[in-house]
Amino acid sequence: MLLKQLASKLITARLNGEPNTECLNLQTDSRQVQPGDLFICLPGHTVDGHEYAEKAVQAGAVALVVERLLDLPVPQLLVRDSRVAMAVLADFFFDSPSQKMNMIGVTGTNGKTTTTYLIEKIMSDYGQNTGLIGTIQMRYDGRTYPMSGTTPEALDLQRSLNDMVQSGTQCCVMEVSSHALEQGRVKGTEFRTAVFTNLTQDHLDYHHSMEEYRAAKGLFFARLGNGYAEEASKRKFAVINADDPAAAYFISVTAAEVITYGMGDNADVRASQISITSQGTAFHVDTFAGSTDISLRMVGKFNVYNAMAAIAAALIEGIPLEEIKRSLETVPGVDGRVEAVDEGQSFAVIVDYAHTPDGLENVLRTVKEFAEGRVICVFGCGGDRDRTKRPLMGKIAAKYSDIVFVTSDNPRTEDPDLILKDIEQGLIEESVPADRYVMIVDRRQAIHEAIEMASPADVVLIAGKGHETYQIIGTTKTDFDDRIVAKEAIRGKSN
Length: 495
Ligand SMILES: CC(=O)N[C@H]1[C@@H](OP(=O)(O)OP(=O)(O)OC[C@H]2O[C@@H](n3ccc(=O)[nH]c3=O)[C@H](O)[C@@H]2O)O[C@H](CO)[C@@H](O)[C@@H]1O[C@H](C)C(=O)N[C@@H](C)C(=O)N[C@H](CCC(=O)O)C(=O)O
Ligand SMILES: Nc1ncnc2c1ncn2[C@@H]1O[C@H](COP(=O)(O)OP(=O)(O)OP(=O)(O)O)[C@@H](O)[C@H]1O
Ligand SMILES: N[C@H](CCC[C@H](N)C(=O)O)C(=O)O
Ligand SMILES: [Mg+2]
What we know:
This protein has helices at about 5, 55-60, 80-95, 110-125, 155-165, 180, 205, 210-220, 245-255, 300-315, 320-330, 355-370, 390-400, 415-430, 445-455, 480-490, and strands at about 15, 25, 35-40, 65, 75-80, 100-105, 130-135, 135-140, 145, 170-175, 195, 235-240, 255-260, 270-275, 280-285, 290-295, 340, 350, 375-380, 405, 435-440, 460-465, 470-475, 475-480. It is α/β, with parallel strands linked by helices.
């Protein structure tokens, strides 16, 4: 594609240099540049991409997108905001792939991965070639790709969406994180449906306050578009959890048609008669398209919310409620979400991805509901992330568990001992006696000791890492899987 064609997408951009420069591809990382690439200089959080432009040119970049002109011998497209430019140019370069698929996005503090899995299952059972993008993986057309985060950068996203289109994908369901919204990673992506799960504390290191965090999520609904467009395929839908205090805000900022779900009488999709066992969760659901009873193989009241969100998104697609029910009832669960580790032992071991105060409270409440013995909780908090959630999670663990093992969960570049101490603050505030909690920096040792002390009918909950297969200490990532370590510990248990 010619540089002038790309430039034409940005009315205020100034093109310095040869307009007919042929750009073979777009790139934001100098280390990945191939001859013929257009290199986009992003001012990052740690380094400034403009500093790497020279390296990019040496590697064969034929033109640059910049926020300030550089003294380099290649054409440059001067823009106000290169992140925004990247999103716009990537959408254009890859021929607006999101407009060729039915895009369903899910945002919220907790439940995004779970909800996207449920929607993917319903859509594909109904015969739609469906792609999925989120925390655990990206998958479509029978292929899976690992993910380094939840929502890809705009350039990677548009490239992947284009590949989905090329391989015949009709529907794409993806997680949209608040970081992604704040950084414009989904700018240029046209969604048909935006789903909101819930808003509780997380990421205050990045968003500073709950208001800012809510505003970041609000961008998704504000940018969604017209819910009442003449052409049916252009109509936009906002699926909102009516039981969440932030619901009114999201409803107020969107021009899309709103469909609510919740336990209250006024929700468009309403669940009632909920019964939870250690094997699953049953509920009755009333919707604008009929009523039915559903038995999930997934445990926890919060999964009723995730299921309702998926039901609403699927009803928008015109999928009959009975088909939705059939799909939901066959979902075995999501990798690392309330996942039982079963080596035939006399006590339960559950691995879960709860890494926020609300997530931990939800999963502990659920566990407590069916635990016949004690609840033993092993958890930690990520380093270089929201510090203020640590004592809150300590309090919650103390409140709902009989024994707490405080340990490491990706300490990253922070001192692991200090992270544990931040968590301990919450246990101290909750006046937990010293014999009811143990602080062990080494996660493997913590899991081994928790399982060693388990008696028949106890439940050991190992929270925070779920599907993760690594532990990040400093900047080194080493193999670590809670499920494998738990199995090891069960097999080696002395009693
Ligand atoms: C805070 C944040 O979101 N940071 C993201 C951001 O990094 P950054 O701004 O620090 O980038 P940088 O390292 O300063 O680099 C700036 C530019 O210089 C370029 N560069 C850099 C070095 C070099 O040699 N050559 C070069 O060209 C880089 O390619 C980049 O274009 O851009 C990077 C490249 O796309 C991302 O990998 C990185 O995510 C980091 C790793 C991250 O941890 N992000 C988390 C917080 C995140 O986004 N999480 C959410 C999930 C949250 C949830 O689940 O709720 C997510 O959606 O993943
Ligand atoms: N609807 C919900 N409400 C509250 N907690 C939930 C909900 N769904 C799941 N959880 C809890 O949160 C954890 C994470 O769930 P899930 O991975 O689906 O969320 P996510 O929003 O994708 O998280 P992330 O932001 O890390 O990608 C689960 O392991 C469970 O403990
Ligand atoms: N998406 C979340 C994942 C947290 C998982 C936990 N294991 C950690 O590393 O803190 C985040 O980036 O905050
Ligand atoms: Mg997720």
